[in-house]
Amino acid sequence: MLGRTRRPANLNAQVIRELGMDIVSGRFAEHQILPGDTELTDRFQVSRTVIRDAIKALAAKGIVQSRARVGTRVLARRGWNMFDSDVLSWHLQSGHDAALVDQLAEIRMGFEPEAAALAALRRTADDCDAIMHALENMSLSGIDAKHFALHDLEFHKAIAHASANPFMASITSVVEAALSVSFTISSPVLLGEPALAQTLALHASVANAIVERRPEDAAAAMREVIQVGIDRARVNHRESPGVPG
Length: 245
Prior knowledge:
- Keywords: DNA-binding, Transcription, Transcription regulation.
- By secondary structure, the chain is mainly alpha-helical.
- Helices cover 69% and strands 3% of the residues.
- The chain has twelve helices and two strands; from the N terminus they run ααααββαααααααα.
- The chain has helices at 2-5, 11-24, 37-44, 48-60, 85-93, 97-122, 125-138, 145-162, 166-174, 176-185, 193-211, 215-239, and strands spanning 64-67, 71-74.
- A two-stranded antiparallel sheet has the order 1-2.
- A hairpin with a 3-residue loop joins β1 (64-67) and β2.
- It is elongated, with a radius of gyration of 21 Å.
């Protein structure tokens, strides 16, 4: 069949996404065996190679495991790689973002205020320039939610680097996908000028405390940034469920 032999560049990604969404949404429950190759090739109209490559990709994300003579089993959620950008995205698209935002915030509260405090004690002139540059980019007129989130991420990465603690920088790198998703779904751009102005003012408070070497103020300001982001994400979710475009 012609449709079974064509392999557009995005075909493998489509199969990965649809199966991933089926698993995250609960259509295929924890510990359930997925349909076999024949059923999946019929469903997606692709070759067995595409199906097997997709299963390997899902296994790498920690959500399935394949065994000979058993098949491919959905693993328990506690073992999934929640820092994987695809897994996070599938959760959001499945309507799990309200709880997910709170869980991401708990992770952030655990290390970002301390990173800000350390940055205030240890920052260099170059660190200050990087933090302020990211803040300036967040303030660009007419910025959209996607680019605001990118510059927001750069702001927080610059602070982690300024902490001069390689573990802080490494943690930020590990959770970068989670931070990116968090910043996107809590974007003030989606709520208009007052929310954007508030967010910029809060980030400026963090930046100024770091530049002026006020560690306690930097940590407190970072906690407020995170908390306001949580509240805003809940509003964004109520008004536009799912992942912002």
